[in-house]
Amino acid sequence: MSGATSRTRQAAPISAPILGRPAADDEATIAAEAARQVRRRRLLVGLSRAAVLAFVLVGWQLFTQWKIVDPFFFGQPTGIVSRMRDWVVDGTAYGTLWSQIWVTMKEALLGFFFGVSAGIVLGVLLGQVRFIADVLGPFIKIINAVPRIVLGSIFVVWLGFGTTSKVLLAAVLVFFVVFFNAFQGVREVDPVLVANVRILGASRWQVVRHVVLPSALTWIIASLHVAFGFAIIGAIVGEFLGAQEGLGLVIATAQNNFDPDGVFAAMLIIAVVALTAESLISLLEHRLLAWRPPSHSEVGGA
Amino acid sequence: MSARASGTATAPPEPAGRRPEAGARIELSGVTKRFMTPAGTAFTALQDVSFEVEPGQFCAVVGPTGCGKSTTLTMVSGLDRPSAGTVRTGGRPVDGIAPGTGFMFQSEALLPWKTVLGNVALGPLLRGAGRRDAEDRARDWLRRVGLSGFEDHHPHQLSGGMRKRASLAAALINEPSILLMDEPFGALDVQTKAIMSNELLGLWEQTRPSVLFITHDLEEAIALADRVVVMTVGPGTVKAVYDIDLPRPRGAVQEIRFEPRFLEIHQEIWESLRDEVSRAYARTGSASTGTESDR
Ligand SMILES: Nc1ncnc2c1ncn2[C@@H]1O[C@H](COP(=O)(O)OP(=O)(O)O)[C@@H](O)[C@H]1O
Ligand SMILES: [Mg+2]
Q1: What are phi and psi of B182, to 5 degrees?
Q2: Which residues of chain A are within 8 Å of residue B123 when distances are taken between CB atoms?
Q3: Cβ distance of B97 and A291 shorter than 8 Å
Q4: Separation of alpha carbons A234 and A129, rounded Å
Q5: pLDDT digit string (tens) for chain B, length 295 residues
Q6: Rounded CA gap, A46 and A54, in Å?
């Protein structure tokens, strides 16, 4: 009997769409309808994005072609593509494109690594030891208020045109972002969790390892997204201020040659690299913070 | 193996089969606790608190919110020190966290990034057991609290009652001689609370630690405890101590509360507690004006 009813009930919606609205009186039908709506919306968003992109690129191309704006200053999408092809095929003035990307990435990654390490260690230390935090607090505030990007000039003077000055600049920029997040993360640790593991027999280091670090990790990882952006900025600006190779130098050269296509092409490359790194960090975030309730991770899903 | 101290005539008679030596005696004498307020003045939370918990005894502390019950537990656990007076456990003054102490907190204390198994195994691990051994023991305790099959779940995937079971297993796995519980079932619904209370009694009978159990629910206190301490509103002091002569094993806590003797005891203690509750209520009602006039 129940089989018969369910069959007739399932049969109804199949013919229903012809009449317009499906009669969603069945669990499966409701689910299918919801899934279809989600798919339709996704498609709509995707198409709209493509339209926006096409509109900007075509508009840019036409405006420069019709000389409404001067391609000498604003570049041109086709010019950017051909400049990129030149670099891939013939290389830049300082070697192949890949070696330029690699040099910049190496500086950014090293700076990221040192900056993140120092930021976590000092952030956790100062977050744990109230006394040190009280003593060093004002100094850190002062250093943070200084526009640190200017330090790049000093680093180039100190350390020359090689890799080290760029790594240092990137590390300094990264350090402060991670440091403040780690510090805050440690301060936000639930004291009940700490009390609980202390009762269970945790030593000071075990409290840090089992409670403080995992708890602060949410904050630290959130800072890594911004921090990697700063690492790339540090490396590029460092190269800009004085270098023998790297994407920053490529940009500086293009600027000196009044070549906006070259600047835009280099920017595009950096954006692709940064987005790749960003998605790797998101992957890491998912892996390390898998314990969190799903509502958290779904926010960044789109 | 601490011998029973003399002069504890108030202690209820013990049926055969108990192992009171499993628990350690808890003594508070003249315990006062003052906190520094942000304004720099001292706030007295506890004033001259003295009472004892006999070895293996289940002692409940009742009193209105804010009277210093949690503060009392913190002193006994060694997490904090009294401003004056002494706390002794097993005959020794409390000086930092003692290995034989278990604690179940008022709020959620499971580590959200560890699985249920990882949380329960943490106790033995931190006390130096090997991972294998710790996890075996954790599995055994999860079975005892009825959480077999949930080893790999994270706390947020469990219901409130299941999280409490896991917390209970985590607190008991190190086989403490003193178990401190701060309104452990306060956030649970009535049915779950009754079930958890029965299970707690069952587990307590097995290992017989001395229990200091805080609650604001007088019925719960009487149903579970051998001794009930009533505290006054701030500064917290001991108003009265009652020994509960209901026989053990008590059976289901839902049923015992209809027995005539239970109702008698309840009536007697409630007389004492009611004044404190209404005084605490009056205070929160006029909290703003009260603090103004204190200055
Ligand atoms: N760390 C602290 N600093 C300042 N005041 C505190 C602190 N802990 C508790 N108190 C105060 O001491 C009083 C007793 O608190 P508590 O022991 O938590 O009460 P209860 O557990 O009985 O509700 C409260 O008025 C509370 O505000
Ligand atoms: Mg409390």
Answers
A1: -105, 100
A2: 200-201
A3: no
A4: 30
A5: 333 333 333 444 444 444 445 678 999 999 999 999 888 899 999 999 999 999 999 999 999 888 999 999 999 999 999 999 999 999 899 999 988 899 999 888 999 999 999 999 999 999 998 999 999 999 999 999 999 999 999 999 999 899 999 999 999 999 999 999 999 998 888 888 989 999 999 999 888 999 999 998 899 999 999 999 999 987 899 999 999 999 888 878 888 888 899 999 999 999 989 888 888 888 876 554 444 434 3
A6: 12
Residue nearest to atom 7 of ligand 1 (CA): B35
| B47 neighbors B235 (Cβ within 8 angstroms) | yes
Judge residue A162's burial from the number of C-beta atoms within 10 Å of its C-beta, 0-12 exposed, 13-18 middle, 19 or more buried.
middle
Q: Which residues of chain A fall below pLDDT 70?
A: 1-25, 295-302
Domain boundaries, chain B: 26-100+176-287
**pLDDT one-digit tens code per residue, A230-245:** 999 999 999 998 888 9
Query: How do B58-62 and B210-215 pair as beta strands?
Result: parallel
User: How far is Cα B143 from Cα B157, in angstroms, rounded to an integer?
Assistant: 18
pLDDT value for A55: 95
Distance CA(B225)–CA(B232), nearest Å, equals 19
Residue B227 to residue B244: CA distance in whole angstroms: 6
- The residues, ordered by sequence, that sit 6+ positions from B278 with a Cβ below 8 Å of its Cβ are none
Write the residue with the smallest CA distance to atom 4 of ligand 1. Answer: B35
Contact predicate B119/B110, CB 8 Å: yes
What does the pLDDT read at residue B263?
93
Cα–Cα distance measured from residue A234 to residue A225, given in angstroms and rounded to the nearest whole number:
15
Helix axes B131-144 and B116-126, enclosed angle (nearest 10): 120
Tell me the chain B residues in contact with residue A291 when contact means C-beta distances shorter than 8 Å. Answer: 112-114, 154, 156
Angle, in degrees to the nearest 10, between helices A213-241 and A163-187 = 150
Contact check, Cβ <8 Å, B105/A196: yes
Fold entry, domain B26-100+176-287: Rossmann fold (3.40.50)
DSSP tag of B51 = E
Among the partner residues B97, B105, B122, nearest to A210 by beta-carbon distance: B122
CA distance A109 to chain B (A): 28
- Cα torsion for A155, A158, A162, A165, to the nearest 10°? -20
* Ligand 1 neighbourhood includes B235 CB (under 6 angstroms): no
Asked whether the beta carbons of B96 and B113 are under 8 A apart, the reply is: no
Radius of gyration of chain B (CA): 19
Select from 1.10.287.130, 3.30.230.40, 1.10.645.10, 1.10.3720.10 the CATH code of A73-288: 1.10.3720.10
Q: Which residues pair with B256 in a beta bridge?
A: none
- Cα angle A27, A33, A37 (rounded to 5 degrees) comes to 145
Closest CA to B204 of B179, B229, B185: B179
Report the distance separating Cα B31 and Cα B50, nearest Å.
7
**Please, what is the average pLDDT of chain A?**
86
